[in-house]
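Two folds, back to back.
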Amino acid sequence: IFGSRAIYKDGWKAGAVHKPDYWDFCRVKDEAAAPERHPDEDVWELYNINEDFNERNNLAAKNPEKLKELKALFNEEARKYNVYPLVDWNYTNTKRSALIK
C-alpha cells in the first residue's frame, strides 16, 4: 500500500515500509514539504513467522540469503501482477493536485 511491500513464503515474511507515509504528511502543513524517498532506499525486514508470530526479531542481518530470495520472489510476483511502478503518497498527491488545479 502506497509503496510498502511484503511477501510470505513457507513460514518466512519479508517486507519494507515505504516512507513518506500518511503520518509524515500529517506532521507537515505543506504536502510538498514531506520528505521524498525512493523505494530502493527502503529497509527490508525478515521474520520467521513459524518461530516468531509477533514479528519481534528481525532476521534480515542474520539471513541475508533468505531475504534476497524473498525480495526476488516479490519482484517476480510484482512484475507478474503489474504492481510496478509502485504508487506512493508522493505520486498520489501529485496526481490529486493536478486534478484539483
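---
second:
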Amino acid sequence: MHIRPARDSDYETFVALFAELETGDPVPNRERFIEDIAPGVIFAEDDAVLGYSYFHVHDGNCHVRHLVTASGARRRGVGRALLRAVRERARSATWCLNVKRDNVAAIALYESEGFSIAYESAAFRFDATALARIALRGDLQIRAIDEAEDAAVERAAGMRAGSFALGRARKREPIALEEKARVVGGAVFDAHFPGAFPFRVTRADLAAPFARMLAERAGRDHLFVTCEAQRDVTAALVAAGATLRFEMFHMRGELA
C-alpha cells in the first residue's frame, strides 16, 4: 500500500468511492472536484485504489472531511494508514472530523488515534413543501458580511472563532442573520450545494425562517442544514418539517 496525492484524472474514482459515505449528499461535479476538493485529497492504493481521505488545514486545525475505504478493502488498515498520512501532511496543532453516531468501527478507530467526542450534530434536508410552510418575518434579514465583521458576528451568533475565515478559504459565503439590525445568527453558506454548515442561531424560533431565507438566497427549492450542539434548534428544525438525514459526533484531537 502506498499513499499519493489526487490527480485531476481521479474524478471517476472519487465519485465511485464518494458513494461509500452514504450521506445522500449531491456528488460534486468534475469542476468542483478539480478546483476545490482534489488539492486536499490523498489516495491509498496497491494494484487498485483502496480508499481516500479529503482534508483541509486552516489556522492550525486540520478538518478530516472524508475518510473512505473501498468496500473490498476493509479490515486491511486502509483507514488507519490514511489517517496517519493526513497527520504527517497536516502539520497542524489539532484535527477534527465528523462521524455518524452508528459507525461504531470508525469511532473506535478515531479514538485509537487520539480523537475524542466533543459534541453531537445533526444533518437535515428541507424540501420545497417544508420551506413553503415557513413564515417569513419582516423583522429578520440576512446579509453577507465583510471580513472585518467576522469576529463580531461570530461572537454574537455563538459560533466558533474562525468559522467564517475557514468558510472563505473554501469559497463559501459568510452570512449574518439580523433581527431589527442585531445579529442573532450566522452561517457559512454554499449556494451551489445548497447548504449551511455551520448554521447557528441564538434562539430556536429563528432557525426555520433563517433556513428559508438561505434557500431563497440560493434560488433553490431545497436546503441542507447541519446543526451543531443545539438540541433546541434541532427540535425546531424537525417541527418545521426538516427531514433528519443522520446524526453525528464531532470528534477532536491534539496533534502537537
